[in-house]
Structures are given as C-alpha cells and as structure tokens.
C-alpha cells in the first residue's frame, strides 16, 4: 500500500463559502460546536463512515482518515462572501435552523466571520436586494480579479496552506449553454473582459477566480457555472479539481433511492409528481420562475437515467414526471417534500406510493459542505484535476463529459466514491458498477 502520490494534509485548510445564509452558517456553527465536543458530525461520510479495504481474510473497515491523509476539524478556517452584511453569528440566528444553545457557545468565533462583499447582479437573483456588494459597474473580469484578491488576502491573513471555495448561495436564473461563448476558454475569457452579462453569471466569477488561485471549486446550486466546456478546460489548465452541481439533500436523495429500488425489482412507473414547500431565502429566490427553471432542470434529470427507459420501455417508457417548488414563509428552513408515485406490478396492476419528507434543508446540506470541501482538497493533493465525477454521490445533477450520462443511483454513486478513496489510499478499487 502506497500513499506517496498524495501530498499530506499539513497546515490549515481554508473553506470559503459563497453565501453566508442558512446552509453556510449551519455548517460553520455546527463544525465549530463539533470540534468542541458539543455535537456529532451526523451525515458526514468523511467523519463517520467506515470503508472496507482488502478482501477476504485481509478485509479491514477503516475511517476515511485512516485510508488517506485528511485534515482534522481543528485544521479548518472559515470565511465567506455574501451580498448581505450579517456575520456568521447574526446569520445563524436569523436562519433559525440551530437552537440558541447550539450557537452561543461559539458566538465569539462566529462573530469574527464577517463576509467579504459579494459579486451581485440583480438580474440573476431578482428576489434579493443586495446591500453588501462589490461595485456593480465593474466588468465580470474586474470582479473576478477582486475575488482573486479576496482569496489571496484570506489565505495570507489566516495562515492557510490551501483553500477550497464552495458555492452555498442562491440559485441563479437559468443560463442555457451557448456554444459560441461557453465551449471555448478563449471565447469565455473574451466574454468576461467584454462584460457579457447575459452569458457570464456572477457565480462564474468565483469559479474562475478560485481556479486561478489553485483552489478547488464546488458548485452547490444548479447554476450553469462550471458545467460548461470552457470551465472544464480551465480546470485542466490550472490543475484544479471542480465538482457540481446542486447539493443532494431531501426529495432528490429519496428519488435516487426509490428509483433504484423500482428498477432492481423490475416494477414499472407511470408517473411521479413532486412538490415542495419551503420558506427560507432559497424558497424566496426559487419563487421567481427564471430561478425555478434552473432548479427544475436539475431535479427532472434524476429518474430517467436511473430507470433507463430505452433499456426497459415496457416499464419506464412513458413516465409523466412533474416537479413543483412553492415558497411558504411560515416553514422557514423546515422544507416539506411530497411525492406521489404511480407504479405498476404483475400483469400491469396499479399501485401507489406516497412519501412525505419533513426535513431541515440546512441540516441535511451541512455535512455535504464538509465532505465536499475535504474531498475537494483531497483531490487537489492527489493531483486529480478537472471534473471530479467520483463526488456525484453528494450532488443532485452530477456533471459529466459530453456524450456520457451521469450516474444517479445513490448506491452506485457510493461505490464510485469508495473506490476513488480506496485507490487514493493505495488499495484496490474492488467493487464494480453494472
């Protein structure tokens, strides 16, 4: 067993969150509490799961940190950007996800995390009036350069040896891929310098800046952002890992489990209706049709690739799939997702399944931020540049090369994740994907 291809996780790791709202403040406050011994990292694969390495009599079950070099939670330093000025303590209190008793013990540390001014364009998030923003008259290229300077300054002031940038901000309006702008790095950079606001989203400024500084970039929303050839080319050019898109938390996580169960049992599906109510800032933004379109595209692609309608047309050839998201302020971060699934079995006889998932969106997302940041850093230290498809386990709409379909089946995704960790740890990747 050799790990000599992976640089050790020495020094501080900076985690810079784009967005300091409910998800980021829950993630940061929770991590600070956990490292004080006042909570458990439930939901985090890197902190809690054991992975088998070796076979037969040589089989051992080890934590991720026992297989590959990983930073401890004490090595993490947090920072953020936002278009609102609240520090991490104020944000956590306003979000009302965590109880006061899970925030106040780390109040002092949270108050020191003051967001840097964010890149803002109201056309991309119409429901939020940004009051803590960089100069909106600047070009996309100039804004990107300011984000680069933010990363360098944070890294120096906090004494970080490495930085990961992770998007945990609102969903932007849907931008379809434009081949003339998005398929060529040269054309993309020209568009940034020309301040092409139609094709260059604010999120792209962060992604390009992160890669320019050698920092892995994770896209936690369904934004187009890094899911274009120009960004793939830049990630390879800079030797930087990228992963996305859209954190897989509640309803879609259930779809990746149930769809796999139906296909495994060869049960047919006629229809799948999904609706959600939520009331946090994410719900407010998604109440705008242009922003919902981005999320809808992300959520609709899941069951088709799992059920394989072309391979099993008798079972899945004509599924009616509908997704709705409704803004309902009284629920705040307590999202409720309803699914009605019309299935059929032996001789075509119909049956129904109803799922009502009452979840706390940020509680489900927080461990994903932790894992994706740590594993993005692992990829960098292992020399894995470009698109990190092995992180699809965490993502609702996994990025994939042109001409290939993403893997959506949660259990297949977990096998891919475990195999990648095994390989980086010098062990055999000994599970196969059908």
UniProtKB/TrEMBL annotation:
* Myo-inositol-1-phosphate synthase GAPDH-like domain boundaries: 250-362
Q: Can you say what this protein is called?
A: Inositol-3-phosphate synthase
Q: What is the lineage of its organism?
A: Bacteria, Pseudomonadati, Bacteroidota, Bacteroidia, Bacteroidales
- GO molecular function annotation: inositol-3-phosphate synthase activity
GO BP field:
inositol biosynthetic process; phospholipid biosynthetic process
Gene3D superfamilies assigned: Dihydrodipicolinate Reductase, domain 2, NAD(P)-binding Rossmann-like Domain
Species the sequence originates in: Marseilla massiliensis
- Report the sequence similarity comment from the record: Belongs to the myo-inositol 1-phosphate synthase family.
Keywords recorded for this protein, A-Z = Membrane, Transmembrane, Transmembrane helix
Regions that span the bilayer: 13-34
* UniProt feature coiled coil, ranges: none
InterPro entries linked to this entry: Myo-inos-1-P_Synthase (IPR002587), Myo-inos-1-P_Synthase_GAPDH (IPR013021), NAD(P)-bd_dom_sf (IPR036291)
